[in-house]
Write a structure and sequence with these properties.
This is BTB domain-containing protein. The protein is of the alpha/beta class and about 325 residues long. Helices cover about 50% and strands about 10% of the residues. It has 14 helices and five strands. About 30% of the residues are buried.
């Protein structure tokens, strides 16, 4: 039996490896993925997955594959993915809900196969893990940026900087794409973008967005530092001194836009840091005006972020997220 491909010639038993912890002698279904075999409960698997339930409910043909006297199923999935998927189904503490820690290989395997085989509760658990690192509101982003990031996210960037966006496209997780693409623009070089395994459309999208983020978007974010030529700040006690303070901080921020081979570029959400306010030598009125302008610019940028990557609005993305997590 095979879910996705033509019948497979079984390997010689001597070439196969029984999966540690996933070979139960009292169970009656044998699964093969690559050269690894698993012996699990047919009824349990059918109960968890409607895809397996439908497949296993079919009367076996006379030529059905058997192994060691048990029905045999070949899965065209990586053995590593099948291993973590089955362990997540069978062992309650193997893949615990967020904020418990997990690993990249476990998360990917569970995401892929819970999506493919429609194990909705397991898919939801995996989606919560990955969604927690891809905020969909500015408030969530600010809170997330102050927290230590999970090790699996760093591992994903080290292994393949485009891995998360690719998974999002494959597994219908559009709501994580704005932050995933934004992260790529911060951390990927032009060469790695061009050599990534993303589609040509996504490569073009990210390269184009990077130009916007490093150029126009950063300039708009820093507009609060320019003195207003049309009107003086209401209540300003030192117009000349405050203008000098604004220009000084603008020059400091502009120098951060310089790109160096070993440093990530400063994009709109990083170009200005909270500690920078301590160095603004302006009067209280001007400082309040600048802070208000900065917060407005941040909100406007955040609202525009999905469109920069040719994605639906945050409202639409949050609806998709809510539907997937409910």
């Amino acid at each position: 039996m095979d879910l996705d491909s033509p019948p497979t010639i079984l390997h010689n038993m001597d070439e196969l490896t029984r999966a540690p912890d996933l070979w139960f002698e009292d169970c009656g279904l044998i699964i093969q993925a690559e050269k690894t075999i698993f012996r699990v409960s047919r009824d349990f698997l059918a109960l968890q997955s409607p895809v397996f339930r439908d497949m296993l409910s079919l009367p076996p043909p006379k030529t059905a594959d058997m192994m060691l006297g048990c029905p045999f199923v070949f899965l065209p999935d990586p053995a590593q993915d099948v291993t973590v998927f089955l362990k997540a189904l069978i062992f309650h503490d193997f893949f615990e809900p967020y904020p418990a820690s997990t690993t990249l290989d476990v998360l990917i395997g569970v995401l892929r196969l819970s999506h493919k085989y429609e194990v909705h509760s397991l898919r939801k658990r995996a989606l919560v893990h990955i969604s927690a690192t891809h905020p969909t509101s500015l408030e969530e982003y600010d809170a997330w940026a102050q927290q230590p990031q999970p090790a699996w996210l760093s591992e994903a960037m080290d292994r393949d900087e485009a891995l998360i966006p690719i998974l999002a496209r494959q597994l219908s997780m559009a709501w994580i794409l704005p932050i995933a693409f934004y992260r790529d623009c911060k951390q990927m070089s032009e060469r790695s973008m061009l050599e990534s395994s993303q589609s040509l459309d996504d490569k073009t999208l990210v390269v184009t967005a990077c130009r916007t983020l490093e150029g126009t978007a950063v300039s708009q974010m820093l507009e609060f530092l320019w003195p207003n030529d049309d009107e003086e700040a209401e209540g300003c006690r030192n117009p000349v001194g405050c203008m000098v303070a604004r220009i000084r901080m603008r020059r400091k921020a502009e120098r951060r836009r310089q790109r160096f081979p070993i440093t990530a570029p400063r994009l709109p959400l990083e170009i200005w840091e909270p500690k920078d306010w301590d160095a603004v030598l302006a009067c209280g009125s001007c400082l309040a005006s600048m802070k208000a302008g900065y917060e407005t610019a941040r909100k406007e940028f955040w609202d525009a972020l999905p469109d920069i990557f040719d994605l639906p609005s945050w409202d639409e993305l949050e609806k998709l997220k809510a539907e997937a997590l409910n």
